[in-house]
Design brief:
The chain contains no helices and 11 strands. It is mainly β and 171 residues long. It has 2 domains: 33 residues, no CATH class; 109 residues, Porin (Beta Barrel), CATH 2.40.160.90. The strands form 2 sheets. The protein has an 8-stranded antiparallel β-barrel with strand order 4-5-6-7-8-9-10-11. A 3-stranded antiparallel β-sheet has the order 1-2-3, with no helix packed on it.
């Protein structure tokens, strides 16, 4: 008799149950949700946590559209800092993009990861650290998506990489 694994569904309310343990500055364990998904998770202390104002991080990198890739990937420079209500605010300058040159960003951070949006340009950006256990942890995988109703780049989505630009005051 063979049992077939239950596939996760995408409808309805979902409750996720996490179990795990803490060792030094890391957490790890397993999860199970009520829609049929299960797996493992890990977490560690933020390497570059956003602090109170006027602390700002600068990031630089490239990105490209998945559906409409350019021969020369657009470059992005992001400046983000925490505001007085613990949210993120900042701006991005984009070079080599045929449809966008700058963004005004707001959002939030969880550890080193951050999610920001530009409401006027209708774009969302998610950045996740790629090196969570390395002491420097300076690289981030970026995903972005423009809403279908955006005035520029409508429906575009893609990926990229950004790196924190070290401050001369980091030591």
């Amino acid at each position: 008799m063979h049992r077939r694994a239950r596939l996760p569904t995408s409808a309805g309310a979902d409750t996720v149950t996490l179990t795990g343990s803490a060792t030094a500055t890391n957490l790890a364990g397993t999860y199970l949700d009520t829609l049929g998904d299960a797996g493992s998770w890990t977490a560690c202390t933020a390497i570059h946590p956003f602090g109170p104002p006027p602390g700002v991080y600068d990031y630089t990198g490239t990105f490209n559209s998945t559906a409409n890739p350019l021969t020369i990937a657009p470059a992005i420079f992001i400046e983000l800092g925490q505001d007085s209500s613990s949210g993120l605010n900042g701006k991005a300058t984009i070079m080599n993009s045929p449809c966008i040159g700058s963004l005004t960003l707001s959002g939030h951070a969880v550890g080193d990861a951050f999610s920001v949006t530009d409401a006027a340009n209708k774009v969302r950006i998610l950045a996740l650290p790629t090196e969570p256990t390395v002491p420097t942890g300076n690289s981030f995988a970026v995903s972005y998506k423009f809403e279908p109703t955006a005035a520029s780049c409508a429906g575009y989505f893609g990926r990229g990489m950004v790196t924190i630009i070290p401050s001369p005051f980091d030591y």
